[in-house]
Every structure is written in C-alpha cells, then in structure tokens.
C-alpha cells in the first residue's frame, strides 16, 4: 500500500491555483517529477518512493500519515512559488499591466509548514492587552477593574473599607 504520486500532484496543483485540466499551467508530468524529487531529496524525513516509483511510503513500508503527506505537498508547492518572481510588469504607451504577488501565497505556505512541523504558533496577538483591544475594542484595565456597587441605602455612594465587601460585586466580563 502507498499513496500515489498523482494524489500529491493533484493537491500541489490545487495549492498553486492550477485548476484547469484542459490547459494546465503546470504539466502533470512535471509536477509528478517534482513530487518524486521532493521525496528523494528528503523534504519530509522518513518518506521514500515505493519500488515501482509510483507511490510514497514510509521507511517501514506503511502509508504516510496525513500530516506527512500534507507537509510534502506544502513543501513542493513552496518550491514552485519560491522560484517565481514576486511580480513583474510591462508597459506600453497606453497600457500598463502588472502581474504577480506571490509573496502572500509564499507566506501562507510557510506558516502551514511551520504549523505542521512545530505545532500551531501564537502569532497574531503578542499580549493579552493587545488581544482584548484588537478583538473586542476593550481596555484591559477597564475590564479587569470595573465594579458595580449594590448598596443598601441610596445615600451611601461608596463601599465602606471596614466590614465585608460593602455590597460591591464585580461586573460580568464581556
């Protein structure tokens, strides 16, 4: 048993945005060769080609795990994207065209590879304060110290420092 090289080829083509089977941007045989080369160059440790070179297996002969297979596909797609120029353009007298912008896809692939190799990373919020302000628009100091007083008499405006909590209750967090 092994996972076919063509399965990885299809996934790599989808990652690269090549969805047209009639006129593919990346020929199937070329992507097949890239998958085989990626396995032989040990892009993912522990994977190898089966004896007839039509599938990917682990060194003990079992099927690769889903994580290993995804990591192989992401790394091969990254090789394709990294070889592309970031952007290019041409200009004539009345026309100017700009193509490219591979950097966003490259960064996304790098993040997915990092997640599979090292576990998910906490990269969007570096501090709790930034999380609360960015996510809900709340100030940490305001949320953490907001108190609502419930007093036995209306004329008493502040809790007394002596004797219990003086009727002070913490407001619910949002």
Plain-language structure description:
With 174 residues, the protein is an alpha+beta fold. It folds into two domains: 3-88 and 99-118, no CATH class; 128-170, no CATH class. The chain has six helices and seven strands; from the N terminus they run E-H-H-E-E-H-E-E-H-H-H-E-E. Strands 1-3-2 form a three-stranded antiparallel sheet. Strands 4-5 form a two-stranded antiparallel ribbon. Strand 2 and strand 3 (55-58) form a beta hairpin. The longest helix is centred in the middle third of the chain and has 17 residues, at 66-82. The radius of gyration is 28 Å and the shape is flat. The mean pLDDT is 78.
Attribute tags:
flat; 174 residues; two-stranded antiparallel ribbon; alpha+beta
Describe how the helices and strands are arranged.
Layout: E1 3-4, H1 5-15, H2 28-40, E2 47-49, E3 55-58, H3 66-82, E4 87-91, E5 96-100, H4 103-118, H5 128-135, H6 140-145, E6 147-149, E7 168-170
Antiparallel strand pairs: 1-3, 2-3, 4-5, 6-7
Helix pairs in contact: 1-2, 1-3, 2-3, 3-4
Outline the low-pLDDT stretches.
Answer: none
Distance between the termini: 53 Å
Give the neighbour order of strands across the main sheet.
1-3-2
User: Roughly how many Å is the radius of gyration?
Assistant: 28 Å
Instruction: Please tally the β strands and state the result.
Output: 7
Could you write a compact summary of the structure shown?
This protein has 174 residues and is of the alpha+beta class. It has 2 domains: 3-88 and 99-118, no CATH class; 128-170, no CATH class. It has helices at residues 5-15, 28-40, 66-82, 103-118, 128-135, 140-145; strands spanning 3-4, 47-49, 55-58, 87-91, 96-100, 147-149, 168-170.
């Amino acid at each position: 048993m092994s996972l076919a090289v063509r399965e990885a080829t299809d996934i790599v083509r989808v990652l690269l945005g090549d969805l047209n089977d009639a006129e593919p941007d990346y020929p199937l045989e070329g992507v097949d060769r890239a998958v085989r080369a990626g396995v032989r160059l040990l892009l993912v440790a522990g994977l190898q080609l089966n004896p007839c070179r039509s599938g990917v297996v682990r060194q003990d002969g079992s099927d690769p795990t889903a994580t290993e297979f995804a990591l192989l596909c992401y790394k091969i797609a990254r090789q394709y994207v990294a070889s592309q120029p970031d952007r290019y353009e041409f200009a004539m007298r009345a026309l100017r065209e700009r193509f490219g912008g591979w950097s966003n896809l490259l960064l996304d692939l790098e993040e997915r590879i990092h997640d599979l190799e090292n576990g998910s990373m906490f990269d969007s919020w570096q501090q709790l304060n930034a999380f609360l302000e960015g996510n809900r628009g709340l100030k940490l100091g305001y949320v953490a110290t907001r108190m609502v007083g419930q007093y036995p008499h209306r004329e008493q405006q502040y809790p007394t420092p002596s004797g219990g909590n003086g009727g002070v209750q913490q407001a619910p967090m949002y």
